[in-house]
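TA notes, week 10

Several of you asked for a full example with nothing omitted. So below is the full record: structure tokens for the whole chain, then the designed sequence directly under it. When grading your own attempts, check the secondary structure regions first.
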């Protein structure tokens, strides 16, 4: 089945890799990997599933998860709402009354989540993020320095978002620290196979099905999956839910994860993106898999 879906999607070479962060353009544009990991730990894979690339916005649900573990549901809700904003990922977006970012999966919400991570100092706070992602993946992940430096050199809009959030009191720590952690988390390097295990960990109520280590409590995993359902695909969220019907998250590195709770995680890597910043083949492969395996549940 995976081979068939791969073959159906492989010939679509439309779209282009992201290049607004210079280092992101330095990828083989036609790489394509597809993985499915079950909640009992089996991993099926086809294509370029062991090429390293940066997690980018797929980091957002995992840092949000760690913020929830550190601050609790109410502690996070005081800073970030759970409404789908239907906006592009880099929209400068605040709710009129509370001033909170409405959507935890776009940059304003994600930078706020990064500001809520506990730790002794900046290095410790990022190390806790890195270790959290590693528990989901079941191996020690590291940061791609070149991508981090490229994003830190060019990320003026994200700095502007961080300063704006600080000015209205939603971020109550140094905004440079929060934005730097966000740049670093986006630069964590993963493979398509890692992403499938991370997705399967969400499917398995927060327990990594390969290592059997708990990465997140069951109740917080539910919250993360709910937010991925309504907010994970930016301005394509409605289209995604109607055509794929699974909680998901995409990143401009070319990855997508999708989760069928209790059952499985899917991951795709293909760096050519559509106009909304989602992987062209990634969206097509998830649609096709959902249709063939009747995964559509929400
Ligand atoms: O905020 C940024 O510019 C990136 N580092 C992450 C953006 C991203 O992946 C958006 N996703 N589709």
């Amino acid at each position: 089945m995976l081979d068939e879906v791969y073959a159906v999607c492989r010939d679509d070479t439309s779209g282009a890799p992201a290049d607004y962060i210079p280092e992101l353009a330095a990828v083989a544009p036609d790489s394509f990997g597809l993985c499915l990991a079950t909640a009992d730990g089996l991993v099926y894979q086809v294509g370029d599933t062991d090429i390293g690339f940066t997690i980018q916005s797929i980091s957002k649900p995992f840092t949000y998860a760690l913020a929830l573990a550190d601050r609790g549901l109410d502690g996070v809700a005081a800073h970030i709402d759970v409404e789908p904003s239907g906006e592009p990922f880099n929209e400068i977006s605040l709710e009129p009354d509370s001033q909170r970012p409405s959507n935890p999966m776009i940059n304003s919400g994600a930078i706020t989540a990064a500001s809520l991570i506990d730790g002794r100092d900046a290095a410790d706070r990022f190390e806790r993020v890195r270790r959290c992602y590693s528990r989901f993946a079941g191996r020690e992940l590291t940061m791609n320095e070149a991508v981090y430096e490229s994003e830190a050199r060019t990320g003026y809009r994200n700095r502007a978002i961080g300063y704006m959030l600080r000015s209205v009191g939603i971020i109550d720590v140094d905004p440079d620290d929060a934005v730097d952690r966000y740049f670093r988390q986006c630069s964590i390097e993963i493979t398509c196979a890692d992403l499938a295990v991370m997705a399967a960990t969400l499917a398995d109520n927060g327990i990594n099905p390969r290592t059997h280590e708990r990465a997140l409590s069951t109740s917080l995993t539910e919250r993360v999956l709910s937010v991925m359902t309504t907010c994970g695909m930016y301005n394509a969220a409605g289209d995604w839910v109607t055509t794929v019907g699974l909680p998901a998250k995409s990143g401009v590195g070319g990855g997508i994860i999708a989760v069928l709770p209790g059952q499985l995680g899917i991951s795709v890597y293909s760096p050519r993106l559509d106009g909304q910043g989602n992987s062209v083949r990634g969206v097509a492969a998830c649609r096709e898999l959902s249709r063939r395996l009747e995964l559509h549940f929400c």
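The pocket of 6-diazenyl-5-OXO-L-norleucine is lined by residues 56-57, 89, 107, 151, 158, 186, 250-252, 277 (CB under 6 Å). Use that as a sanity check on your answer.
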